[in-house]
Each structure stands twice: as structure tokens, then as C-alpha cells.
Specification:
methyltransferase, two-stranded antiparallel ribbon, eight-stranded parallel beta sheet, HCY_dom_sf, transferase
């Protein structure tokens, strides 16, 4: 893998489904495949969504595969295993096409670089019952079952040429351990690992995030570029990451929370938008903590990411407090493949 030097803070894109809704309407939330359905049914909308985040200034684009699985594509798109694997690979091609359309060869020269992170959502996302925000399935599902579910998706993403994996919205340590051990089968692969959390201290399954992060780092620090949180209320981020940093300061941190709105599952809609503190208001505290990967999740569209870009750039240029500046020896600055 080719070593590169990354920026002091890398901006991750935002909520793919939120931005995608501009092109496909309000038919994403509640679908058993969520936004992954549109890999098959509206390919151009997927490409355009990635382009929007490039224009907003994102350094890293996440593939639209959070809820993609062999079983899900078979059940809801009537695809066989081979076709499902090809569709997952095609999701990476959509990102590559978006980069080419927006940046041309510039992305591979000495100018702006945009990395591709292959989204690996939790086993619970495929259950379509919200259990990725509770995690109790790890108590009744065998590790072998979870491995069998994840393996073809991970292999498809790696074969298609992602720069790293985004192992995200993981609710429980048990699934994280399974995934980190599975990752060892692909020793050249890199990944970040982010957890869904139910409060300011615990994962969705109830473990202390500081203990979980330390355990994961000890298990496979060679392949992890960061550990952190995503798909949670933004007010939880700072205390959660402070606890990780206090326990093990050397762990690079990542955060990409939701907007702060609340999803009403009964009505199938997001609520309390007017009551939310703008998520950009939290960025300064994350930068002061030394978070090196910052982005958005549900309900953060390209305009929010554009604001993130402005806040991050101002911090780096004017505050004169660069966030744990990178060198070629730093964990997150080496061994990512372009």
C-alpha cells in the first residue's frame, strides 16, 4: 500500500440518505434496504449525491453500502449472490466516477485528494428492527453467523479498491471483536471503527465506551486508523471521546454524529429540527480534543458538510492550534492506499 500524508483533520462526508432524498424523494427511511436500494434503482442519484459532498469539501466519501448485504439484495431486489456482490462493488465505482467527474485527474496528482471508505454497517442493520441501536442480537447470534454475513461485503469492497473500511454504527463490543479479528484476514486493509452510543458514556449495548475502545485498539491497532462514534446525538460526542482519550490518549479519534433531530418510527419522520443546537456548534470542542476525522451522519446534508469545512479550515489557518499534526510516522498518515 502507498503511504500518504493526510491533513491534520480529515472531513468525512454527511448523511448519504439525507442528501439522496433530494433526488429520490422521501422514500428512503423505512425501506428495508434503506439507501442501498438505490444502488440498483437510481444509480445516477447515487453518483450525484457523492458529487454533492465533494463540492461541499469532503476529504473522505463513504460508499452507499451501510445496509447492503447478500441476503438483503436477494430478498428485496431479487438478486443472486454473484449479482449482489457485483452491486456492492459497483457502489465503489459510483464514488470513483463522482471523483472523476468533479476532480478529474486532479485527485491523483498533487492537488486535492479524496479517499473512499467502504461502509460496513452492523449485522443488526440487516434485521430491519432498529437493533443496531440496541445490540442485543450479539447475545443470541453466533460469531460464525456474524462473520458469514460480513465477509462477502467486506471482500467485495476491498476487491473494488476502497482506500479503507468504515466499520460503523457498531452497537456492541462483541461484534467489534468479530470484525477486528475478521479484518486480520486482509492484512493490508485499514479501517476506522465507530460505535453507536445510547448516552454520554456507553455503547448502545451498555458497555463503557472507554473500555471498548481500549480493548479494540489492543486487539488490532495495526489496522485501525481511528476509533470513535457515529449516528448519535451530537451532544454525546465530546464526553464519549474525552473518556476514550483519558483512558488511552494515543488512539486517533473519529466522530460523525446525527443532526440532533429525533426519528419518530411510528410516523416515519424526523422531528424536533427547530429544537436542535446546530451540529456545527459542537465542532470547536471536537477540534480542541484532537479529533482527526470529523463528519456527519443522519440528517446532515451537503450544506452542513460545507459549514464543517469552513469551521475546520478556519481552525487550522487562524487558531494556530493544529490538531495533532500528522507526520509520516503517525498511525493515520501511513499505509492508506490511493
Amino acid at each position: 500500500m502507498t503511504a500518504i500524508v493526510m491533513e491534520p483533520v480529515m472531513l468525512v462526508d454527511g448523511g448519504f440518505s439525507t442528501q439522496l432524498s433530494l433526488y429520490v424523494g422521501n422514500c428512503v427511511d423505512g425501506d428495508p434496504l434503506w439507501s442501498a436500494k438505490f444502488l440498483e434503482t437510481n444509480k445516477q442519484a447515487c453518483i450525484q449525491t457523492h458529487r454533492d459532498f465533494i463540492r461541499a469539501g469532503a476529504d473522505i466519501l463513504i460508499t452507499n453500502t451501510y445496509q447492503a448485504s447478500i441476503e438483503g439484495f436477494k430478498d428485496y431486489l431479487n438478486l443472486d449472490k454473484e449479482e449482489s456482490i457485483e452491486l456492492i462493488k459497483e457502489s465503489v465505482e459510483f464514488v470513483k466516477k463522482a471523483i472523476a467527474l468533479e476532480l478529474g485527474d486532479e485527485s491523483y496528482g498533487n492537488q486535492r485528494r479524496v479517499l473512499i471508505a467502504g461502509s460496513v454497517g452492523p449485522y443488526g442493520a440487516g434485521l430491519h428492527d432498529g437493533s443496531e441501536y440496541r445490540g442485543e442480537y450479539v447475545e443470541t447470534t453466533s460469531p460464525d453467523t456474524i462473520i458469514a454475513w460480513h465477509t462477502p461485503r467486506i471482500e467485495a469492497l476491498l476487491d473494488a479498491g476502497v482506500d479503507l473500511l468504515a466499520i460503523e454504527t457498531i452497537p456492541a463490543l462483541a461484534e467489534a471483536e468479530v470484525l477486528l479479528n475478521l479484518l486480520k484476514k486482509y492484512p493490508k486493509a485499514k479501517a476506522w471503527l465507530s460505535f453507536s452510543c445510547k448516552d454520554e458514556e456507553h455503547t448502545s449495548h451498555g458497555e463503557r465506551i472507554c473500555d471498548v475502545a481500549a480493548r479494540c485498539w489492543s486487539l488490532n491497532s495495526n489496522q485501525l486508523v481511528a476509533v470513535g462514534v457515529n449516528c448519535l446525538h451530537p451532544s454525546y460526542v465530546t464526553p464519549l471521546l474525552k473518556s476514550i482519550h483519558k483512558k488511552l490518549p494515543k488512539i486517533p479519534l473519529i466522530a460523525y454524529p446525527n443532526s440532533g433531530e429525533r426519528y419518530n418510527a411510528q410516523l416515519g419522520q424526523w422531528e424536533d429540527k427547530d429544537k436542535c443546537v446546530p451540529v456545527v456548534n459542537y465542532i470547536r470542542s471536537w477540534l480542541e480534543l484532537g479529533v482527526q476525522f470529523i463528519g456527519g451522519c443522519c440528517r446532515t446534508d451537503a450544506e452542513v458538510i460545507r459549514k464543517f469545512r469552513g469551521h475546520i479550515d478556519y481552525w487550522i489557518q487562524h487558531e494556530k492550534k493544529p490538531v495533532r499534526p500528522c507526520s509520516v510516522d503517525d498511525k493515520i498518515c501511513t499505509d492508506l492506499k490511493l
